[in-house]
Amino acid sequence: MLPLRWSLLKPLQDGYRQGRRYLAQKNLLELTDRGFFQGIFPDTAAPKIKQLFITGQQSIYAGFDPTADSLHVGNLLVIMGLIHCQRAGHRPIALVGGATGLIGDPSGRRTERNQLGESVIETNLRAIEQQLRQVFENHEKCLWDTNKHKSPLAPLTIVNNADWYADLQLIDFVANMGRHFRMGSMLSRSSVQSRLESEDGMSFTEFTYQIFQAYDWLHLLRRHNCCFQMGGSDQTGNLMTGHELISRVERKREVFGLTLPLVTTEEGDKFGKSAGNAVWLDGNKTSPFALYQFFLRMPDSEVEKLLKLFTFIPLPQVEQLMKEHAREPEKRKAQTLLAEDVTLLVHGENGLKQAERVTNALYKGNVEGLAELNLAEIQQTFQGATMVDMLTEPGMSILQLAMKAKCFPTETDAVRIINAGGFYVNQKRVQNIAEVLTTGIHILRNGVSLLRVGKRNFYIVRWQ
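Above: the chain's sequence. Below: its structure in token form.
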């Protein structure tokens, strides 16, 4: 068994790749022990699915609609599912919905999505495709050991459903495909029922979404021999519609659905989307440091579940880790390993280095750590901080710095708050208003000073 490493903020000289490359789980249904699969269908298909997974390479797909220019941590579980498939020797297919993104999936929503223009969809598609490729690349570089596995990983295939709908004629599609859908079944879906009962009801556009997702699966079956579709449990109705379509059109072919649990917080909010503040996979929207901190702050009651879902650590080692954590919960060993592995997967080694450098600088009061950050990293970390360009002047005092940066409305406020200990330069409290700025202490070697008033009001000074 590979040793687990517990230290917070450990250096990267030994490389994060060592000790992180766990053996793949060949029988994917065993992921149920990790709480990974919430359901399969048909319900009686488990023996058949197990046989298919063990005896040959399968193609498995999941869909991602371009509703934003970045995926978020709520999408990460589905990505993890595709990577587990890849690790087990199967072929992962990510479908990006250039066509279905124009329609909008009603699943799990109380109101209709705002319609996005084609140019916005195209921008979002390019960003999401890049993120998917980056996550799979990070996995292969940092979390996969080619020496322990005989076969190379099957490459990720990304397809865009706009490519095949562009060639379809509406009348032909309705005439040839529409006859295979049954209104009773479509109306019975929970995503449809909940919306029909709502005040705003449901538009015809949204109602047709399940038809197009069903046809996507049929197309992938014919083109890529894709017999498996994976999605969150809120996608169950759409997956079932696809299964029913294929059973009518391709009667000699068997297909199977795998649903994943919807991860929620203790309060029941969608994971990573509480209070409208999504935790994005794009480092420009949510910095590697912010992603790292999001998982580092997970409560003890949630961390074991998240380790099973968002890391590849074998279950015996998760159990060992939780025993260690129970003995010394204040060290947050479990949360640290969770944060490290997720950040490594999403942002790679450089992202993890950055996250730990910032953590070291902020929470250890390490001025040198702040000096190692470039301006872009500081801006990402302190999103929303006021940027100030300032010329260096010999003999400038702390009070003059604070006033030039407009940290306080009046000099009287500045003197009062600084004397009371509410003003910080580079995370160090300063209380002497006459103290003269010193290079290396107040002005870092990267040409930046980080000012803070109170707990959360940050100002970034860029020296000219």
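Residues 1-18 have pLDDT under 50 and may be disordered.
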